[in-house]
Write a structure and sequence with these properties.
Layout (H helix, E strand, L loop, with lengths): L3 H15 L4 E6 L10 H8 L3 E8 L2 E7 L7 E8 L5 E5 L9 E7 L4 E5 L6 E8 L26 H8 L6 H6 L9 H11 L12 H23 L3 H4 L30 E5 L2 E5 L6
Antiparallel strand pairs: 1-6, 2-3, 3-4, 4-8, 5-7, 6-7, 9-10
Helix pairs in contact: 1-6, 5-6
The protein binds zinc ion (ZN).
Length: 286
């Protein structure tokens, strides 16, 4: 499942390719579970809109849209969640439509934006923001769809520490709780805890201030590193119709069960926490 860095990479790649384009035609499949907004309504909302920008919010990809009549006081956003296997592709209409295509937007550039999702855990929705005081051209990224939880890449240390206060659950489980921080999944939780030297089982509310400081830094470092790595491989999954996996961060603990820790040589241990496999070094993480 794509995590925050992959979603950010896809959002940036799509933004580079479709920003400023007008949506000239809309085709949606008849698979109802894909659409959180009824397909007929979505089709009507999207047609004719101009794509102002595409960006990541949590693990969602948000298209900020401008419709022909911005004076109506409502701005639209198209919200795409990739689920397990969802992909956004930008290609020429001549490229044959892959199986499991659920949305095709014809763009003013002559290219198509396609949403393809074999497993159908992905979701498409329209978000309306009432917009009485702000001109569309002044939209800031703070507006509109926010999703649950705080943004791990920009949360201040004090707010980060507050998130875990009084929480009687393992820190690993707290990191995966999307209502606290959004977008941190299993891989990056394990990798961040390793770099911060914290055992996944430690109770979140009992971590010391210095430990939370280290964790705050390590989460942001790990995510930024992954985004940087992903940026170079974006064409593999946005352009054309190839099916390529996401890049992999140089994992230090994740899926390295039994292999020597890269720091101290102790075999990496695997446990199950809250139903999720969890990897850590019993020597480096306390
Ligand atoms: Zn170690």
């Amino acid at each position: 499942m794509p995590e925050l860095p992959e979603v950010e990479t896809v959002a940036n790649g799509v933004n580079d390719r479709v920003r400023g384009q007008r949506i000239e035609s809309v085709w949606l499949s008849s698979k109802p579970q894909t659409f959180k907004t009824p397909a007929a309504e979505m089709e009507q909302d999207l047609a004719g809109c101009r794509i102002i920008q595409v960006r990541r919010v949590g693990k969602h990809i948000v298209f900020d849209l401008e419709n022909g009549d911005a004076r109506s006081g409502v701005l639209l956003q198209w919200i795409v969640h990739l689920g397990m296997t969802g992909r956004l592709l930008v290609c020429s209409p001549e490229v044959p439509l892959p199986a499991h295509t659920h949305a095709v937007l014809g763009l003013s550039s002559g290219r198509e934006l396609r949403f393809v999702d074999p497993r159908r855990f992905g979701r498409l929705a329209i978000f309306r923001m009432e917009n009485e005081s702000v001109e569309p051209s002044h939209q800031s990224t703070a507006q509109g769809f926010q999703g649950p939880g705080q943004e791990p890449l920009s949360i201040a240390l004090a707010d980060f520490q507050k998130l875990f206060r009084g929480r009687h659950l393992p820190i690993k489980s707290a990191l995966l709780n999307q209502k606290l921080l959004h977008g941190v999944g299993n891989i990056y939780a394990d990798e961040s805890l390793f770099r911060a030297g914290i055992r996944p089982k430690r109770i979140a509310g009992r971590l010391r201030k210095a430990e939370l400081e280290r964790l705050h830094v390590s989460i942001q470092t790990v995510l930024r590193e992954a985004i940087k790595l992903g940026g170079s491989s974006v064409s593999d999954y946005v352009d054309a119709d190839g099916v390529r996996g996401f890049f992999q961060l140089q994992h230090r603990v994740y899926m390295r069960t039994g292999q020597p820790c890269l720091v101290c040589g102790t075999p990496i241990r695997k446990i199950v926490l809250g139903g999720r496999s969890t990897h850590y070094c019993p020597h480096c993480q306390r």
